[in-house]
Every structure is written in structure tokens, then in C-alpha cells.
Amino acid sequence: MSLTLRTISREQHLAYIRSLPSASHCQVPAWADVKGEWRSENLGWFDRDGELVGAGLVLYRQLPKVKRYLAYLPEGPVIDWFSPSLEDWLRPMLAHLKQQGAFSVKMGPPVVIRRWDAPAIKGGIQDPDVKRLRDVQATHIEPHAFEVADRLRRMGWQQGEDGGAGFGDVQPRYVFQVPLEGRSLEDVHRGFNQLWRRNIKKADKAGVEVVQGGLQDLDDWQRLYEITAERDKFRPRPRSYFERMWKVLNAEDPNRMRLYFAEHEGERIAAATMLIVGGHVWYSYGASANHKREVRPSNAMQWRMLQDAYALGASVYDLRGISDSLDESDHLFGLIQFKVGTGGEAAEYLGEWDFPLNKLLHKALDIYMSRR
């Protein structure tokens, strides 16, 4: 296979993404503007006929005090990962990134290894001997994914223990998704567990209304998001981050990002952001007040977002990251417990992989990140 790689324009990159059924929101050109603290580059792979057959958004972060960069392709690049000649795709990329001053490359192949359906996960939760999702027998295994992993190892790529734990912008290895393709909305609703269906009904009976918001509503979003951050003990992103996200993503595509609010008696008590790339729709950030939780605004909002994703013709509604812990005493257990109620499935991706172009600087970065 004869492939050449070169820098492409954002317009070429976007046109290529639009030609696909879907791609990660972290690989659209505008994502570079969301991550404004990184330098960026759009890469294109061309076949021998000069046709664009792959693309990648690279984010470069400079190492403190040295003019060398970490090159990061979040949930990318968008190439033929199952190609028997994967080396022909990745070798020119490594050579190019080295020329650009990269000392290390991090990428996240958008390749699913295993899937677990809701009954399998529930069985794992009920089994006292099972503590991790990986200990539960998968309902679907993608054999070719293991071949991809083997090829990467043979090329010298290294996989982090936890898909890149300790790296600030790491993407989740385990996610929860509700498949929509080939299903009716009634079928999706039937797939919810009893508690979810009851909570959706309860919200409706209590008069919870779900509405779409816009840029002018970001103050309401930020208020609920900061309440959530304090309650769940994480450091919140500033309002400016979401404003930038809204402006740059929707400038690229007017329907790339949406904002939803659940309202009760005129008060906004829950909110969520939604991202759309082709047939893939993501619930990306969520927030809720500490009070009125009994009217179940989050269930109502998720159901509305699922319905809207379906109306858009989405093939999958992605609830994003989960931990693989099935231990009820783990503080992250609530995430999978909430999401499994949708009747969807957990998916495990290949995780993030590193290629040290300069082993000494790569090691220095590891030490620096572990101390932060």
C-alpha cells in the first residue's frame, strides 16, 4: 500500500470528516480551538491516486523550558485501523511528527475491543466475587482489535496501564453507549430498567420540562456545574472554556454542540451538553442542583436527549466515560450504575498508546506529570 502524509487545510480535514458516518468529536478541526493552549496541525493521508483517505488532528504541547513537543492525537487519527499494513499509516506519521520537534507521540485508536450488554453488567454487579468489568465475560469481542494491539506493540508503541493515567487530557478507555441503529424509540424506552422508566414518569408527573439553551444561558450552566463540582469533588473548568467550546464548535457546524436544561416550577435544576458528529452523539458534561433531586430531572433530560439524538438519525448515543469498577464501595460505581439503567452497553477501547521518539525526554515527561 502506497500512502503519503502531509499537512492539510482545515477545510480539507472537515470535508473528509463529513464524508464519514462518524468520527470522534476530538478529531474535528475545531477541537484544536477548544484546546487553545496547544499548538495544532491537521494531517492527511493520500493514496497513490492522490485521494485523501485518512486524517488526524494533532495537538502539540511544549515541554517546559525546552523547544520540544508532546504530540497528541485524541481518539485518533481517523485512519483504517484494521489495515493489514497499519505500519504504512503510522510510520510516515511518526517521521513527520519527529520533524515537527515531537519527542513523544500519544494517540487513542478509536477501536473497540469488547462490549458488555446491560444484563451481563448487572450479573457482574450482583456477583460478590466480581470487582471489575474486565472480570465479567464480554457479550461481544472484536478479534481484529487484538491484532491491532499486537501490530502496535511490534512497531514499538507502548500502552499505559490505565490508558494513559496521569496525563491531563486523557480520554476514557471505558464508555457507555446506547445503540440506536435499527431500533424504534419504543424499543429504546423498553430497554430502560424499571427504575429509569419510573423516574422518567415521575419527572413528567412532577412537571419537569426539558428545554434547549444557547450561549446566553451559560451563566445558568456554570452555576449548576460548579455546584456539581463541589458535591462530586472535582476541579471545574471555567466558564470561558464552555463559551469557547460553544463558539468554535458551532462556528464549524451550527449543530455540533447543544445545551439542555431541566426546569421545574421555573427553576433550572439540571443541565447537560451534547456533541454531534455525523451519526455519533455524545452526552459530554452534566450538572445538577443539590435540591429537587426527587423530581428526577437527570432522567428526564437524558430521555429527551436520547429522543433528539434519534430524531437526528444517530446510530449511537454515547454517555461517555465510566470506571470499570463494579465495587459498590467505590466512589465511581454510581456512574456505571446510573448509565446501565439505560439498557445500553459498556465498551472498552484500545486505550491510549505512546511512542517515545526521544526516550530521555519521554521519561522526563512521565516524571513531570506524576509530580503535578
Automatic annotation (TrEMBL):
This is Peptidoglycan bridge formation protein FemAB. It comes from Streptomyces abyssalis. PROSITE patterns: FEMABX. It comes from the Bacteria. It holds the Pfam family FemAB. GO terms for molecular function: aminoacyltransferase activity. Belongs to the FemABX family. GO terms for biological process: cell wall organization; peptidoglycan biosynthetic process; regulation of cell shape.
